[in-house]
Amino acid sequence: MPDPVPPDGGVVVRVLATGLCRSDWHAWAGHDEISLPHVPGHELAGVVVATGTGVSRWSVGDRITVPFVEGCGRCAWCRSGNAQVCPEQQQPGFTHWGSFAQYVALHAADTNLVAIPEGVTVEAAASLGCRFATAYRALTGRAGLAAGEWLTVIGAGGVGLSSVMIAKALGARVVAVDRHPGALAAAAGLGADHVLTADGARDIPGLVVEVTEGGSHVSVDAAGSEQTCANAILSLRRRGRHVQVGLLPAAVGQPRLPMARVIGWELDLLGSHGMAAADYPGMLALIERGDLRPQDLIERIIGLEEASELLPAFDSASPAGMTMIDPHRR
Ligand SMILES: [Zn+2]
Ligand SMILES: [Zn+2]
Prior knowledge:
Elements: E1 11-20, H1 22-28, E2 44-51, E3 63-65, H2 76-79, E4 103-106, H3 109-112, E5 114-115, H4 122-127, H5 131-142, E6 150-154, H6 158-169, E7 173-178, H7 181-189, E8 194-197, H8 204-211, E9 216-221, H9 226-234, E10 236-244, H10 259-264, E11 268-271, H11 280-288, E12 298-302, H12 304-310, E13 322-325
Bound molecules: zinc ion (ZN) (2 copies).
The site of one zinc ion has 7 residues, from loops.
């Protein structure tokens, strides 16, 4: 493929690390409208190698990461610090070619780029572009998870394990649910207070209510299916808050959800769509202090060729942590 050129207001970044994420699998499976040929990859870190016209805050040589949602930088949402819901948003690996490549073009650099602090590795920084930052914002900015509260995390992949780590740092208590023993072992290693193996038949909400003595205050569906979403909602206590992070693409069908429970128990249903660059400083401060350690969530680093083998199998894989790609590795 030809190397990209920087768009107006944007940059080209030499990719040093990029994550293999379930969202890439959704795109590969045809759940997004994508025209071929295409380059996936949306959680990245690297070095700026070219700047387009109108970029004022960034220069060649800067180490950066970027939220997977690139806001336009001009609309009311972007100006209020909510680029994560920008109506004109671009997404590398979805709306344009992404970071499973040596180079990637990024838009509206002054709005979207985030400097990587000293001491944070590029692999850890890449995870901040999607799964770790999404989990951070879901629990802090959306659900307002507080110390002492119970959190149920369904799906102990990248978002789920990040949620466990962040919730424990916030002083919350955590129940992690997954199909795979390896993922649950990783969750337990990060401090999950209880782990529950889901086999499709077990009454997960009933078990959560039992171990939390009445249900969780907050739930996160990090997997994204009708069953995991419903189980997360039904695991809540009265007036609990659910955050949906796992994707439920319309192409797969609209999920049937227990809305009678939502009404009767006054449950809050919240969506969470990444995190704008404007909200990164608080999270980065916790990472620099060592209170949050995204680098501990990385299970392995692979090359692009191996990535193209793993991507189609992602839905049925059983990773115990995040897979990162070094696109220069052979
Ligand atoms: Zn992702
Ligand atoms: Zn915008």
